[in-house]
Amino acid sequence: MSAGLKISTGIHGFDQTIDGLRLGDNVVWQVDDIKSYQEVVDPFVKQSLQDERKVIYIRFGNHEPLLSKDVGSITIYHVNAENGFESFATEIHRLIEKEGKKAFYVFDRLTDLLSSWCSDLMIGNFFRVCCPYLYELDTIAYFALTRNVHTYSTIARIRETTQVLLDLYQVKDDNYIHPLKVWERYSPTMFFPHLITGDEVKSITASSEAANLFANINRMEERPDYWDSLFAQAREDLTKDKTVQENTKKKLIKLLLGEQSRMIDLCEQYFDLEDILQIASREVGTGFIGGKSVGMLLARKILAKDPDDRFRRYIEAHDSFFIGSDIFYTYIVQNGWWKQRVKQKTKAGYYHYAEDLREKLLAGSFPANVREQFMQMLEYFGQSPIIVRSSSLLEDNFGNAFAGKYESVFCVNQGTPEERYQAFVQAIRQVYASTMNKEALDYRMNRGLFEKDEQMAILVQRVSGDHYGEYFFPHTAGVGNSSNLYVWDQSVDMNAGMLRLVFGLGTRAVDRTVDDYARIVTLDDPSREQLMYAEDQKKFAQQGVDVLSIKENELLSIKLDQAIQEIDDLDKQLFASVDLEADRRLKELGYHGIPTPHVLNFKQLLKQSHFPKIMKEALATISKVYDYPVDIEFTANFKNKDDFQVNLVQCRPLQTRGLGQSVTIEKIASNEPCYLQTEGNFMGGNVRLPLDYIISIDIEKYAACSEQEKYTVARQVGTITRALKKEQVMLVGPGRWGTSTPSLGVPVHFSEIQHVDVICEVASVSKGFVPELSYGSHFFQDIVESNIFYVAIFEGNKDVRYHPEYLSGYDNEIETWIKNHKALDEIIHVAKVDTIELQADIIEQKLLCR
């Protein structure tokens, strides 16, 4: 810094009072009105131009411009604060970087940012990120705040950050400047008020004069955050007429729920002002509550307002809290990571800075006032288990579900208050850090969202369920889809929807679990079984249960029989049937005192209770309002088969291909060659898709690979599909694409195969490869969002013809993309097949590829 060089304010008597300005100074003026600020800006700019300084005016306020082109050779930047804090702060950071060292700046009045952000907190954050960068570049910058508007904490943060803080008063046509902070300068009279008359300055040192002066000045009283003031005023509007209430509601929706979109249109339709105020009362901090929270609240409201009141008795109340998106920015700013955040938001730095920023996000601290609110929230929940869930701005909206891209973290919430607090805060850090996970980065990049303002709010929910022995879990959980595109015979009504149902926590319903299966429920006929041999019923049922261990204070997986045994307040047969054969064998072998073996089939629940009917009607009701298929996550707890409550924890639109135009499937004789012909077990609507390439994995050779070799195969498949992203590609492989367990399929990341058009999973039970379209899983969401057609190929089943040898006439093109491929060319076959077409009719449930 050029500490010795003195810069003039343009008021020469005042220069002597504060010993001049220094390069690096940020100068903040507290004023009564914009006219007062203008009176100190004018001499500063005039003097700076005389000294041939580069003067830059940052224009964003609602007041009249402070400077114009007519003033002289100044540069004016118009920056739109309406685009949000991150966009605004990033744009200003980049223009400061562009203008470089020793530029002189005049900023519009910071108080005007309240009209865009409605948050004192964010004005403080902006100053915290802007001021140090200006100081670093040896600039001088003028800022203004309107007195008696901002909170003590905002002024305190600005005072702590700035180099010079000055009060500017006007009393009876006289102007007074009262220095409050002048960094690294001091004189015996510096911090007295000073009467300014032109260039002359008189220090008010006499006690009588000072007392008379300050008696005429309104000192700042403690003010609530502007955000809180707005909502306090809105509560008063509840007593006013409907027009006032409606206008206030729309204003608050924009602040709390998001900018105009299809989701917000629905919120305006279903929420009233009292609803919005209730949501605001449960927010920590300020800003948006995020897409996941909005989706959950809207779906609940749609069901609550059902004209026939079909759902009220079945829907469990929620008492969720929302950590506002502004807390995410505050966390980044207060820990000093904003500059790195700006670099990461560029195309060049998008991946380069992400990992380091992720590590930082896992280790930061929160301001004292935020910590206190977190503690009060935990005191509210007591020792009830909670879940900390991501709720970003773009999440669960039309077109961008972000399914599984960000973290959700269970807090079993046991131990001392301090231990519970530390676990909770670490869960928040994990959610924040997940914004820098590669899958999330790829998702945003591939959808052109990498520069979007993706703020992370957080949804904190009480975990639904009860204590069973030393465990905590709900009776059932799962996901539901209002449109069932995965139908295996013509009798399935796709418009009735489906459920993917599990016992215990719903984690097994949304993640593809090793050697485990959820119960797929077609809601037109809930007891309908999927096509499988009777002896496979137990093999392809749920084997493990995810629970929260109160004793171990963590999420655990336990055996089904162990979990079922803990249910003592309800008939276990509602969920599982005793495995009579296994029970008989155990007794014959002399085993006693072990849990009775069960098969989880939900037979009584699906045949004898109202549960499937209520779920079908609820999905249809929400979907009708959305005018779109929807995907929900839920839990359900029972007192008996018809006395239950469903906790709707998430809802989002589900993009689908839809039916499209009907397709006439080519008729071929049974002896005519084809690559694939099947009835049922596919999803994606009606298609006629000419293929350019088929990438296939040889099942036997893949099964013989080591685990490391299987991972290599996955990475090489990713390399090839990325190179072919502009072609029409079908991907065919054993078992489950995207599994985390190579013995069950090919462990690709979805980002590696997201550009293909068709995914086929081939069953080979003898080799352990069994396809499973994990309905409602994050992988399923990715397939549907990316418009990928899916086929499960049960080789050897009736109505299935699968002939891999059909491609034997096509050369393996793998060497085009993979060099030194000798170990892989027998496993991966890349065929250029410009004469092969996939035809599918979802109504007729017929598919042909030849």
Structural account:
This protein folds into five domains: 210 residues, P-loop containing nucleotide triphosphate hydrolases (Rossmann fold), CATH 3.40.50.300; 58 residues, no CATH class; 166 residues, ATP-grasp fold, A domain (Dna Ligase, domain 1, 2-Layer Sandwich); 188 residues, D-amino Acid Aminotransferase, Chain A, domain 1 (2-Layer Sandwich); 174 residues, no CATH class. It has 27 helices and 38 strands. A hairpin with a 2-residue loop joins strand 10 and strand 11. The radius of gyration is 32 Å and the shape is elongated. The mean pLDDT is 88.
Give start-end ranges of low-pLDDT stretches: none
Q: Going by CATH, what is the homologous superfamily of the largest domain?
A: P-loop containing nucleotide triphosphate hydrolases
Compute the separation of the termini in Å: 73 Å
Strand content: 15-25%
Largest sheet: 9 strands, mixed
| Tally of helical segments | 27
**What class do helices, strands and sheet pairing give?**
alpha+beta
CATH level-1 class of the largest domain: Alpha Beta
Strand order of the largest sheet: 5-4-6-7-3-8-9-10-11
CATH topology of the largest domain: Rossmann fold
| Share of helix, binned | 25-40%
Which second-level CATH architecture of the largest domain applies?
3-Layer(aba) Sandwich
Average pLDDT rating: 88
DSSP E strands, number:
38
Write down the domain tally. 5
C-alpha geometry:
elongated
Computed CA radius of gyration, to the nearest angstrom? 32 Å
Keywords: ATP-binding, Kinase, Magnesium, Metal-binding, Nucleotide-binding, Pyruvate, Transferase
Catalytic activity: pyruvate + ATP + H2O = phosphoenolpyruvate + AMP + phosphate + 2 H(+)
EC number: 2.7.9.2
GO molecular function, one term: metal ion binding
